[in-house]
Amino acid sequence: MMGEWAAIGLRFAAYADLLLLAGLALGGGLGRYAPVVDRRIMAWLAALGAIITIAQFGATALAMTGNDMAALDRDMVRFLALETPMGVSHLVRVAVLGLLMISAIVRMPRALSGLLAVIALASLAWNGHAGASESTLGLAHRASDVVHLVAASLWIAALVMFARILLLDCRTPEGLASALATLDRFSGIGGIVVGAIVVTGIVNLLAIVGFEGFFASFGTDYGQLLLLKIALFGGMVGLAALNRWRFVPGARAMVGAKTQEVAVRLLRVAVLTETLLGVLVLAAVAILGTMSPVG
User: Which residues form the domain of 80?
Assistant: First the structure.
């Protein structure tokens, strides 16, 4: 049981780290309007991701040998690292994260950092249920999973950026106006992000359980947790809609007024709550990856 919870914890840490790393490298979908991210933060996230990946490989390799340390000799480690999709994906991830650390230190172009971060994130698609899919279905499943991950990374990073802006940069009318403009800019890509997550989420589930088992899967423990994940995601979408159509326009009307702080407080609560729901979604994802979808 401890091993299972360790695997879940490592999956959660890997997803949280790599989603945030890729999302920040891509500017949270804000393009040239994205707040500047300290390169040291990117380097630390890359280093942490490499450490988590190595720990994941060790835990997975041990589980694949039935937790028999004696069986996990040099030849077995070499085989698992070089001859299995799981091992190769972990090696690629560590190598790319190493390059990303170097790019952060020597100040390589931002586009290169974004590409490396996306490759590291995409390597997650070769683990879990997507990694187990075979042939053409496997390719389609992993491609869909990569799109799903990239879309999620943009949303997660945007939330972190918004939280930072609302907590630190809204003490003046000018700061609030700038923050509201940033929130408005993300709303344009936000609909695309949500649509991509929904469509690829459905594709991923169909790839796992098939058309015949689609509705039946919701009667399993896996399906019940998936429904909880969908509900949490729905809460995030609802809060995003409130921000877009109510809180942001309301705050814009209060810029420079005595009630400005009230508007900022509402936005802070909404964004921080949305971020918390995102963390809970990641926790559900980490658990789902260790569960069987057929009961």
Answer: 1-126
Global pTM reads: 0.90
In a domain, 229, yes or no: yes
DSSP classification of residue 243 = I
Angle formed by the axes of helices 74-83 and 39-64, nearest 10°: 120
| 15 and 281 Cβ atoms separated by less than 8 Å | no
- 163 near 23, Cβ under 8 Å? no
238 shares a domain with 108: no
Number of domains into which the chain is organized: 2
Pull the structure tokens for residue 89: 């994906």
The region, left, alpha or beta by phi > 0 then psi within -120 to 50, assigned to residue 134 is beta
Is 2's pLDDT higher than 60?
no
Based on the fold, state whether residues 279 and 234 are members of the same structural domain.
yes
Going along the chain, which residue ranges are E strands? none
Residue 130: per-residue pLDDT: 63
Cα–Cα dist 38/270, whole Å: 25
* The predicted structure's pLDDT at residue 3: 64
Residue ending a domain, choose from 75, 108, 126: 126
Q: Are residues 16 and 97 in the same domain?
A: yes
In a domain? residue 131? no
Contact 140, 55 (CB under 8 A): no
User: pLDDT tens digits, residue range 51-62?
Assistant: 999 999 988 888
215-232 pLDDT, tens digit per residue, is 777 788 888 999 999 999
Is 149 in the same domain as 107? no
